[in-house]
Amino acid sequence: MTRNASNGPRMAVAPSLLLLGRECFVMLLRCHEARGPARGQGDAAGPRRRSPALPEKKGKTQMIRMKSHAQSMLPPVRAAIGVLLASWLSAAPVQAAEPATASGPVVARAGSVTVGQDDVERLLQGLPEADRAAARSNRAGIENWLRQRLASEALLREAQGKGWAERPEVKARVDAAMREISARIVASTYLESVAQLPAGYPSEPEVNAAYEGGKANFQVPASYRVAQIFLATQGSDAAATAKVRDEARKLATQARQGDFAALAKSRSQDPRGAERGGEVGALPLAQMLPEVRDTVARLKVGQVSDPVQSAAGFHVMKLLDTQAGRIATLDEIKPQLVAAMRQQRQQQLVQAYMARLVAPGAASIDTAALDAVLHKAN
């Protein structure tokens, strides 16, 4: 069960987005996840709302609060600079760039523009583990990225063919961007060299202390293992919707008296869920559509719900099992906790080094000149 695509956030693909790198790929994946497949297609009926940050792995999907806490810590210099460089590269035209050709077997093609298997593999390998796991399970998102990549390469070739890179105003923007990028790379790599962390940080006692001190933030939410029978509705035809509702009610009655899994396999219009007897997995309520959360929360194990209507159709659900909320164990969150501690400590070292370069009392600011600039900007 995913919200209708028309209700989700949309991403406008700017003409200047010529090179779709890892950051852009992740953005496209998340855009597709948020929008969801078209109504009535694939697992549009499924009750989950997936996120690349929440791959389906034990010890990760259930750590929503812990991840939120870890992400609130200051990021390392490499990540911050990487985002800035990505924004510069996407905003500046590309000068004298050779048209991309597929590396390895061709995965996608549009005319003479191709994307190779090796290109996709390199992209996936460059992603963080969580995003890589989410990408593997999001085929539609990857296909969306491939289409955008083909369009971007075709646009670049068209611009190069018209000599666009030789225009004086374009050259000026490229030169300015290259100077800025070069300066950022030099500064960021030097700063990383003087703010390196010891390989052994944090120590085991430090990790244990951080875990004990932050337990309140490491809550694993309760999860509900659910199966469903889904019937899609089309448009706003009241009579047609009423007919589907009546059919869903009949199926709910049959499911209470017979084999829910067998009925889901034969009658559910969610193909992927139907193959598994209607099972959609164990999920926290936050990952389900708002329309079904209250119903699922009230069900007892083994109980079948009345039909619940969403924008996509009607859902008859059965609660198969539940797991109570709990505090994540140290073993479950240790990799993320260590990474967060290293990020925070590195940023502290960076800030300390920058403070030594220009001490608060050593900087002289002409307030009158600054006021004049601000007034002119207004």
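(the above was protein one; protein two follows)
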Amino acid sequence: MSNRQNRAILHGDEDGHQAARHRRRITGSCGAMARPISVEQLAALVATRHGDGVHGPTIAGLTGSVAVGKSTLAASLAAALAPYWRVEVIQTDGFLFPNAELESRGLLMRKGFPESYDSARLAATLEAARNGPVEVPAYSHSLYDVDPALTRRIDRPDILLVEGLGFAPVSGDSRVIHALDSLLYLDATEEDLEHWFLDRFMSYWRAAETDPTSFYAQFRHLSEAEARGFGRTVVWRQINLPNLHEHISRARPLADILVAKARDHSLKLVRPELDWE
């Protein structure tokens, strides 16, 4: 996809033949207007960061709260980019320390917090991906652990989308975010985030009824109401929400692209500030 095509899609006209329209501004300030944006337009905005490929793939990060829909958006962006570029998607969850190691360090209840990630390995993998094939570990939400069987090999795609947590600098360590060419932050209200998280938690809980290997099988003795209450009070409010406040949200002001997601899953572009005719 050429930059001309990218601009055309951003303006809502893939052929580039635009009718006259009023000048509109999108800003990242608190009281700003934000413009609805489609996945295709957002993909075009991501693609404008793509260079000539001489220095390896363009690496774009995608982050935001637990349950905001990072994986779904990454897959949709990859599908929109695929007709024009070779695209790969990887998840930072694959770079979590295994449960056994987290438990030995007393960090199992801190999974998803910065200290639960092998940040050095993640940063090294992203840098190595610019120069040649790399092995990328993967995570199983059903097992609630890194699964070696899911490890895969990627080889210098045009665009590498990296979705997950662990991008915000911690204690001066900014190796991961410095390995990116751009960062997209997917934002939403805390009310919507809790709603989506509980929907996901309960879907895993229900699936565990017929899957004894699932991490969530240990909660099957709870009633549905009890399981939902546990997900809300223990997992969301004591783990995921503090992680959002203390760490994840620190990546928001660093993001090149800030997108707001509504309960109906519609998207609005908050940043960057764009002027278009």
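Reviewer note on protein two: The CA atoms of residues 124 and 176 lie 8 Å apart.
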